[in-house]
Design goal:
This protein is α/β, with parallel strands linked by helices. It has a single domain, classed as NAD(P)-binding Rossmann-like Domain (Rossmann fold, 3-Layer(aba) Sandwich), CATH 3.40.50.720. It is built from eleven helices and twelve strands. A seven-stranded parallel beta sheet has the order 3-2-1-4-5-7-10, sandwiched between helices. The protein has a three-stranded mixed beta sheet with strand order 8-9-11. Helix 3 links the parallel strand 4 and strand 5. Helix 1 crosses helix 8. The chain is globular. The chain starts with 12 loop residues before the first strand and ends in a 7-residue tail after the last helix.
């Protein structure tokens, strides 16, 4: 693996936005371990000091890792200073607010994409840009529907319509705004690629649910902490989404690294969903891993999402850049998620 040809040389600067996120923190670790320097953007540097401690400390002390503040990613020019001198950008940042008004979620997400693309266009050192999208841009994961076969031109346009339905804004808008913001943002990415003669390559990685090792207590507290919800029996979070797809955070971080480093990956839309699973699959594994603990009862009628998706490109990249045969198993991912000091038994 060390002999693989890379698009950018080790020792150069890589920018990771939303650096304190679950996926972003693992992307940072993997670039650092490969000998790259990483600049991470966060809203508040003081509140993200954990990224300079623990397993990150040696890199921070040796000036291979630094944090910079970008308090509002939707402002034009917000990333101009952060992109200076970087050769690659990984844009993982997104609007985390769950609110009914789509103007507070979709609009800043799209303007954030536009802002960082414009900053990259103004910085000649940039050679590679990778955007983190989501499987929900391609389909709805509707348990009642057959989502069919997902192809390179599959789009979940229905969620955009739901999010932008006329006011009064309510719960249905709040639930639609996140996936709708990702649909709109990814479309903005490909629009920029089509309409501009960019001096850098653009790729998109689209995960579904992300599970695995948390690097801070913050990564077991959020609404998307899927294993934690099942571990704690949080039915309010479990019931609306009984089945989905789940990938290990380290696998997904590796795919972002590969999307930057692999010279053959250009204008790719990498569907990186991982394993199809129902909560009953999680519960069976958790009972095996923690036989002394009582978990919520199985759902009486389990199901799996009816969708076909080709993940062969992502799996091939895991083999090429990580030497692994396919996705990390669901059992190993769940074990990593609960074998942590941040989660009490």
């Amino acid at each position: 693996m060390s002999s693989l040809t890379t698009t950018i040389p080790a020792g150069t600067w890589v920018l990771v936005t939303g650096a304190n996120g679950f996926l972003a923190s693992h992307i940072i670790i993997q670039f650092l371990e490969r000998g790259f320097r990483v600049r991470g953007t966060v809203r508040n540097v003081e509140q993200s000091q954990w990224l300079l401690q623990g397993r990150f400390k040696t890199y921070a002390d040796s000036h291979f890792l630094e944090l910079v503040s970008v308090p509002d990613m939707g402002v034009e020019g917000a990333y101009d200073e952060a992109v200076k001198g970087v050769v690659a950008i990984l844009h993982t940042a997104y609007v985390t607010r769950i609110v009914p008004d789509p103007n507070e979620v979709i609009t800043p997400t799209v303007t954030g994409v536009r802002s960082i693309i414009n900053s990259a266009k103004r910085e000649p050192s940039v050679k590679e840009v990778v955007f983190t999208s989501t499987a929900l841009t391609a389909c709805s994961f509707d348990q009642k529907a057959d989502n069919g076969t997902i192809g390179p031109n599959s789009w979940n346009d229905a969620v955009l319509e739901a999010a932008w339905a006329p006011p009064p804004y309510g719960l249905s808008h709040a639930m639609a705004n996140y996936p709708a913001s990702k649909v709109a943002a990814e479309k903005e990415v490909w629009k920029a690629v089509k309409e501009n003669d960019l001096h850098f390559t653009v790729n998109v990685v689209s995960p579904a649910g992300i599970i695995g090792e948390p690097l801070t207590s913050k990564h077991v507290e959020g609404p998307a902490s899927w294993v934690v919800h099942v571990f704690q029996g949080n039915k309010a979070a479990m019931d609306p989404l009984e089945a989905s797809f789940y990938g290990n955070v380290k696998d997904l971080a590796l795919l972002h690294v590969a999307a930057v480093l692999d010279p053959q990956v250009k204008n790719a839309r990498l569907q990186s969903w991982g394993h199809s699973a129902h909560w009953n699959d999680f519960l069976a594994i958790l009972r095996e891993l923690r036989p002394q603990k009582t978990f919520v009862a199985d759902y009486p009628v389990p199901y799996h999402i009816k969708v076909t998706v080709d993940q062969s490109d992502s799996v091939a990249l895991l083999k090429k850049w990580g030497g692994q045969d396919g996705w990390t198993s669901l059992k190993d991912s769940i074990a990593e998620n609960i074998n942590t000091p941040y989660l009490d038994d």
